[in-house]
Write a sequence for this structure.
């Protein structure tokens, strides 16, 4: 009988553990993911390379249009360094969805609106910026969510 | 003692179950994911709308550049229907990575190369097509992997 009780305790502990893993998908991870992407928006608008890089995982991949993908944190750093030398962004991201698919992985779709200014001349570039973004985020071993993959494109009509 | 044995059996069954879930990430899912994306390539090159649509999940989102995202299978169908009326693709996808993040979710990065021909005139469009793709795939309740989210952009330099 004592063994049976033990077995029930062991099994219920296991069940509780796995149940908690499932529940952990929820509110705190979701808020943390939103916080990371808000911090990304802020760092992007401040042309803050290190602020941006701190939000990317070491093995991340950044996939901006009209470029080969930037693979790994050093490549990501150089991409933003180059970009911020040329353009000054003022954009806002709006969340379409945040989908956590495991305790340590999630993807997020956003759309963005704003303006691009040329650093050299101070001139605004083209029409208002309008984009769609697909982020894959991974919870790191230290518990912080970071951007693992990021692809985006313009939703403005193609230039003829 | 019999209860203890029972408890051991229950616990090891549970452990085996979860271990199998972890192992299931591997070869068969990976081959199946590759098969789905090869089928996508084939259907795309054949301008086969229903062939493409069959590879998308019902609640999928297709995010081509220069368009708002197409949300849901009917919107996805209309996007490819419109596209295939105008252009004839001949592209090849090359896998950069296949990352399964849970028993039922994975993401895939590819690059693509090929040509676009205008249906109306038979003229080739612009330079060779070169793209980068980010697919999120979900294993459906029937066990089939399908495209759940798909964003891409050109890796060719921006037109000036």
């Amino acid at each position: 009988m004592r063994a049976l009780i033990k077995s029930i305790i062991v099994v219920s502990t296991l069940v509780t553990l796995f149940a908690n893993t499932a529940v952990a998908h929820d509110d705190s991870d979701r808020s943390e993911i939103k916080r990371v992407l808000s911090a990304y928006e802020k760092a992007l608008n401040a042309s803050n390379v290190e602020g941006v890089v701190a939000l990317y995982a070491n093995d991340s991949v950044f996939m901006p249009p009209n470029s080969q993908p930037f693979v790994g944190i050093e490549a990501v750093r150089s991409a933003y360094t180059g970009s911020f030398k040329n353009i000054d962004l003022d954009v806002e991201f709006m969340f379409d969805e945040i989908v956590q698919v495991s305790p340590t992985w999630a993807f997020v779709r956003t759309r963005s609106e704003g303006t691009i200014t040329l650093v050299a001349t101070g001139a605004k570039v083209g029409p208002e910026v309008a984009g769609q973004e697909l982020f894959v985020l991974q919870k790191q071993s230290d518990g912080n969510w970071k951007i693992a993959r990021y692809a985006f494109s313009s939703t403005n009509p193609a230039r003829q």
In short: Confidence is low (pLDDT under 50) at residues 14-24 of chain B. Helices of chain B lie at 2-23, 27-45, 49-53, 73-86. Chain B has four helices and six strands.
